[in-house]
Amino acid sequence: MKITTLAAAATLALAGLQGAQAATLDVVKKRDAVVCGTTTGFAGFSAPDAQGVWRGLDVDLCRAVAAAVLGDANKIKVVPLNSQQRFTALQSGEVDVLTRNTSVTQQRDTALGIIHAGINFYDGQGFMVPKKLGVNSAKDLDGATICMQTGTSNENTLADWARAHKITYKPVVIETFNEVVNAFAAGRCDVFTTDASGLASIRISKMEKPDDYVVLPEIISKEPLGPFVRQGDDAWLNIVSWTLAAMIEAEEYGLTTANVDEQLKSDNPNVRRILGVTPGAGKNMGLDEKWAYNIIKQVGNYGESFERNVGQGSPLKIKRGLNAQWADGGLMYALPIR
Ligand SMILES: N[C@@H](CCC(=O)N[C@@H](CS)C(=O)NCC(=O)O)C(=O)O
User: Which atom of ligand 1 is closest in space to residue 108's alpha carbon?
Assistant: First the structure.
């Protein structure tokens, strides 16, 4: 009886808490800015440039949400979060959306009061080692000291993989990104493990001599990275996931920052719906009909954002691979805006 009462009280308290949290769209409109949780600085995905302006594939997604909701991609506030802090910041309402290399997993999507709003980068966990170690395969890592960051999915994935492959290793788990990078650069561990995108970024942007390091060929997991929002605010979930869909679908239809004004004259019914020439999509979400036009005009389509931040127009030079459009053999398949 007592336990039931306590459980009921807890449920009520939770419901009260959720009820007390105002609709995110209203909060964002009133504040006139979207608050996004990012990394503390992970080049290509979310990091400040030399002028202190936050840039990256994940920052572009944040900017796209601001363009869709407020008509201005610059109306963002960035809250830098390390891996450990990110979920609490979203749960507590400190950020409106987490746009930060976060792997979607069943546990995160169901047990933390948060939910993913699409995938903006299909990744997998890998390993980086100094060339001088002479290691060519992850299978040769038996006995290695392996650096990783606290609060990442990388910790458990590595443990599972090592057990399955009968590999023993010594974990060095460090809370902040720069410290774990410094530990690796200083040779306090033989190996750095995280998402392959993370390794590419660390190698180019953090290692003094990138050519002294090699990323091993093995990818040991699926790491589908995407934005997260709080559970229980479906209108906001819709806005974030359809913002991402609009970027991906804009690429599919060849809509770019440079040609979007010209495309307003297109007679393709899909293009007309995306750009709000045929109204409806914006109103359905409580947004201006120019929501997707503003995203494309101010931020660009998914491919433009990819190439500029992590692809051929960036130092990382990551290939599209799984992140190519479905028509090109990749997994980027936007749900249709109609
Ligand atoms: N995708 C993995 C790893 C993501 C992650 O947090 N990676 C670290 C290492 S690259 C990172 O981004 N750190 C940046 C920071 O803490 O500021 C996850 O969701 O757990």
Answer: 19
